[in-house]
Amino acid sequence: MTKLSRYILVIITVLTASVILPELFWTAFDKPVKVPFVQYSCIIDDFTIFNSEEDTRTDTKGNSYTRKEYEALLPLMYTRQLMIEERFPDSIKGVEMDLHDLSKARSYCRIKPRDFQAPLPQLYPLFESESGRANLELPSDLFRISWRMEFIDANTNKVNEEKSKKFSATLYHKGFQFPAKQIAGLPTTRKSCDEGYFVVDSKDQLFHIKMIKGEPYIKKVDIPEGLSFKHINCVDPKDKRYYAYFIGNNNGIYILTQDEYKLVKWPINDYVAETNLLKIQSDYFNYTVTVSSDRMQKTYALDKDFKVVNTHQYSWTPNEEQTVGKISASIFPFKFSLESPYCRFIKLYPRMPKGYVWVIINLILVGCQLLLIKKRQSKFNNQILDLVIVAATGLFGFIAVNVFPNKLS
What does the pLDDT look like over 339-351, one tens digit per residue? Predict the structure, then answer.
């Protein structure tokens, strides 16, 4: 029993050390990569590049700019600063600048890999889209879509049968196949208006669901055959050009236009949803789309017809492939993390190092353990399992078997 309890403690120590020690190592030696800030200038029709580490502002042709010159190249970003300095242009590209129109065209969206693997709510509020009130108000019930669409009173926890039957029947007649695979919307009162939810049914069909004057509004959206969606990110742009960003099973980026319900695919083909960060920023003239991985940032400039007008790419060597990363891969045969940049769930995420230098380190530690066994004058046969643990887990096992030493002589 004593021997069993000891090995349980050894295993716990190995797991704990494999989480803590690599984290301490990277905290001490990690040097974050400072990626340049890249924006598209409607003044010079080129990308501007701000390098905060070197405090330089350039374009892709190598021209350098002062801070004031740089801000003047991005008038739709530094509008307020240029207005204060009375340097904001009256017109750009022959278009008279109206601050109200500029504000309507401005939007920002950020989609992270972790958004694709995250806990999902089980109940959603369905707002009244035409209440006649100036502000949106939270409803007294919440809905879910399982074998039917059910509305549950938040105060009594009872199902509103009349409302549930009304919405469920309308969905059924529109061809909805229960249950829902995905429900996406903006369940908050902090939006300009309510556009309901976009719901993917069990057959990957897309539906728009909202409530107008207490009655269900259901619209089936036509999508190409074979297309399904990994993620739907609903937005509330002031110009009301589209409802949401859709990430397809082909990693395509789509938008769904308002009124026409037209699904438009953007010409960006190197986005991998599970590992890339996606940032979308729009202004009066362009959309700036940035796709980032752990070693590359690619920026696209799209016009208002969603056509690519320019691209810029910046690459770097990840820390794992630099000297500090090679040292880590040598001394840690594996590591566990409680968090992942690609998932929001808390659990043990294993990660194996690149290369096999850690095998040599493990063998050296086995040799050190043999010397300790000899020094303690312990019987070799009683220490074989400890040696196996050190050989398999390296530094973690070496620490564990010595913190809880084998007392069998």
Answer: 888 998 988 899 9
